[in-house]
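Z., the sequence and structure:
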Amino acid sequence: SFYYGTFPAGFLWGVGSSAYQTEGAWDKDGKGPSIWDAFTHKKGKVFRNETGDSACDGYYKVKDDIQLLKELKVNHYLLSISWPRIMPTGIKAEQLNEKGIQFYNDTINSLLENNITPIVSLYHWDLPQVLQEKYGGWQNISMINYFNDYANLCFEKFGDRVKHWITFSNPWAVAEKGYETGEHAPGLKLSGCGAYKAAHHIIKTHAKVWHSYNNTWRREQRGMVGISLTSGWGEPVDPHSQTDRDAAERYIQFHLGWFANPIYRGDYPEVMKNYVGRKSAQQGLGTSRLPAFSVQEKTYIKGTSDFLGIGHFTTRYVLQKNFPFLQVSSYHTDHDLAELVDPNWPAPGPKWLYSVPWGFRRLLNFIKTQYGNPLIYVTENGVSETMQCPQLCDEWRIQYLKGYINEILKALNDGVNVKGYTAWSLLDKFEWNKGFSERFGLYHIDFKHKNKPRYPKASVDYYKKIISANGFPNPREVENWHRKAMDTCSVTHQHLAADSLITHMEMVTEIVLPTVFTLCILISIVLLIFYLRNHS
């Protein structure tokens, strides 16, 4: 049932994006290549071989995009810093890029001038390519010190103004998709061990950066350092079946617990250690494929988060499924479960993202119980559409936001310590291996147009109303928001159609007319030659 009410005073509302997905300018002003530059430049890695080379041209449109944030009336903007933009090789001792540092300084200053708080992620997947080539990226323990140098540079250059730092955004995807399945950069398929090793180094790196901030910068800068973990909710198919309940627990522990448990409780979840350890022994391996933390490391890692960032998109039903003993090991067969969806769940866009709002409240309550009710910021939550043609009247996104934000309100009443919400994302952008075919933006971008204009979808108007009211005051008002949002998007749609027609005409003018003109000249020359020959 829907709950009408408002959020506590001071609750933070925002939107987010990431550097590689929006900035473009991949080789401009001294930026070094990232693993995503290298990955997308190989054929067959991304849908339609699209790249983020220019993406949303965010590098050149900071002022325009801050205007959109002002329109939305958000309190904060979650952005990420591109490591190779400020440190081209990833190694501090080798080279710093002053133009890159200036770009982020200008961006942060512009946000603050407009009363928008920057929440900054140090890593949203764009590792410097040099570190991948030289050391094997997150497979190598040397990343810990290189990343710590980079983080300290960011604290030094921006920490006087940035008070909310995220070390890693969705490290689960970095490890699993980058080093297990190879769907994401760097595209390595190290099945059964690559993801565990990458995650192990990422967790240790996170802890080192937290301690660096704590020891060197905290007293002076008075900021906070956390991590952003993305996880779905796993609901047992049969809540009365112990095996299904155990399988659902494993689903959460192999996603969220993999990273949260070491940070909040000092070690990997017991169930993870047991399952991966047992399967490793069955394979005849002397040690578990899941690396172990030493006693000192456990103490060092535990408690290294001032807040927990949570990304959440969808839910699965989970049941027990035994995978027979396999010579080829895999993270996906280690947890002995199968995932199902309810065919009645709305799936407006891609087939992985079903709208199941009630799962969010359960996930937030799980975090409260499991990790001692930490301070939570929702760092990513949103829904995408699969792009056939521009869809500005995004009713499904309105329903999604309404449902999921309402579950946060219910979780607050359960005593969960949520302090802010970040809608994902501000703009349609480059969606990793899906290219531009999936659109998460509140603002539509016409990527065919050279200026990449932004157009508000209906969800902009609706989200703006939630922010202004700080929640959902009463049924009549909320229904009104919906009607007005749909009316506004119809007008914007007409503008977009007119602009698209003009763009089409411009393309015709720029390409067809010169071609026709050239052909006319060639035909004239040929006719002239014939004429002269005949007369001679």
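The chain is about 45% helix and 15% strand. The chain has one domain: 5-473.

Let me know what you think.
H.
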